[in-house]
Specification:
7 helices; three-stranded antiparallel β-sheet; 50% helix; 151 residues; single chain; 3 strands; alpha+beta
């Protein structure tokens, strides 16, 4: 399967780490999630802020398309969001920013166990895919709005 280059680099980093190092790196990524927040003065084409049953707090997903048709995400997490969700947020922001709409929409979720490990996938089966689903939904909304504007 082909992934956007930045996401593929992250997958390859995690894939062969021993469990202790994998968890340590996930914690480091969780701490980086605050860097994914919206930037002051940057307009976003789609702003989707809500709390879903799959998550412990509100998550805001913001997406914009640049002049080269590349998508850029910002994600803001409420204070109760779990560490693993924070880690996946940072991983996905870093791994998907600058991708095309098509690349984002075709990213299969099969990479998640390669990053977080099969044990954590079993323990957190609903939440580990949550951020990816929200990002794809925001991109779909963006595509729908763009189609409507050109019709």
């Amino acid at each position: 399967m082909s992934y956007p280059a930045a996401l593929n680099d992250i997958i390859e980093l995690f894939e062969f780490l021993p469990e202790a190092e994998r968890r340590e790196n996930l914690i480091n990524y969780a701490e980086m999630a605050v860097a994914c927040a919206r930037q002051e003065g940057v307009p976003y084409d789609v702003e989707d802020v809500r709390k879903d049953v799959e998550c412990t707090d509100t998550v805001g997903v913001y997406v914009r398309v640049d002049d080269q048709d590349r998508v850029h995400f910002a994600i803001e997490l409420g204070p109760k969001v779990q560490t693993l969700t924070k880690a996946m947020t940072a991983i996905l922001c870093r791994g998907l920013n600058g991708s095309t709409v098509e690349e984002v929409m075709t990213v299969p979720p099969d990479f998640v166990p390669r990053i977080i490990g099969a044990d954590l996938v079993r323990l957190r089966s609903q939440t580990v895919y949550y951020v990816l689903g929200r990002m794809k939904a925001a991109v779909k909304t963006l595509m729908d709005c763009r189609r409507a504007a050109t019709s």
